[in-house]
Amino acid sequence: MNLDVAESNKSYYSAAFSALNKNMNSLRLKLSYTQQVKFQGMAFVIMLCFLGLVVLSRSTQSNNLDFYFLLMSASFIGVFGFFIYLYKNNYSLTARYVYLWALAFHLIGIIGLPLFEDDYFRYLWDAYQSVQLGSPYGVAPSEYFDNRALNQSVPEPFQAILGQINYPDIPTIYGPSLQYSFLLAYIISPGEVWPLQLVYSVFDMLLIGILLKLAKPNMVMLLSLIHI
Predict the structure, then answer these.
(1) How does pLDDT run across 113-154, given as a tens digit for each residue?
(2) CB–CB of 174/137 below 8 Å?
(3) What is the DSSP letter of 175?
(4) Is residue 1 part of a domain?
(5) Which structural domain range is residue 175 located in?
(6) 171 by DSSP, 3-state: which?
(7) What is the count of structural domains for the chain?
(8) Which of 16, 24, 128, 200 has a Cα-to-Cα distance from 69 of 20 to 30 A?
(9) Under 8 Å CB-to-CB from 116, ≥6 apart: which residues?
């Protein structure tokens, strides 16, 4: 009988302690208005660094490695600094906060051009081949260099794209699923990189929405900003 009472009391106090601890954590993690403003400000500063990269991509200094590394370093320091600050103070972001800021970053990214990256020329060309030939897997880009008739059949915007494709002796290395995404971007605007960025931003936002259902917003924030 005494053992039953002892066990009952132990369970009661254990449950009470857990509830108290949970309430204390809730109070500790609840953000004040000032703290919320601070978080928005931190995200805005990181966004300014990212916006700097977008401006750089559109400027005559787009090949300037000093500016590039300066802005990339500032962005990464901001992202990891923000994450460490959250971790040390045991603050938790809301899913809505992470999703809306991720959306803002993606929208800004669509405006920019790829920096020190030329794979997208292959994406644009593959889409063109899919439309013209029904498949990107038959004719390698290099065949257009050697065949005058083939070369003259290519519209001027795609002439510029053709001349910047890596490994032109290979028809393509990308599978059908990616080819459909290239084709979708082509339908929006042929030969332009921004539709590719739009298509992949939509997929990114869908993935972020799923991750926010499965993981902590802080971790999703870190992963999404590094990925961008």
Answers:
(1) 999 999 999 999 999 999 999 999 989 999 988 888 787 889
(2) no
(3) -
(4) no
(5) 119-192
(6) coil
(7) 2
(8) 200
(9) 63, 68
Residues of the chain with pLDDT under 70: 1-33, 226-228
Identify residue 61 by its one-letter amino acid code.
Answer: Q
Other CB atoms within a 10 A radius of the CB of residue 132 amount to 14
Cβ 78 vs Cβ 46: under 8 Å? yes
User: Do 109 and 36 reside in the same domain of the chain?
Assistant: yes
Q: In angstroms, rounded to a whole number, what is the distance separating the alpha carbons of residues 111 and 53?
A: 11
pLDDT at 18: 53
Q: How far apart are CA 130 and CA 146, in angstroms?
A: 21
Q: Is residue 14 part of a domain?
A: no
Helices (H), the chain: 2-29, 33-57, 65-88, 95-111, 119-133, 142-146, 148-152, 156-162, 176-188, 194-214, 217-227
Both 109 and 39 in a single domain? yes
CA 170 to chain CA centroid, Å, is 28
Q: What's the number of CA atoms in the CB half-sphere (13 Å) around residue 32?
A: 4
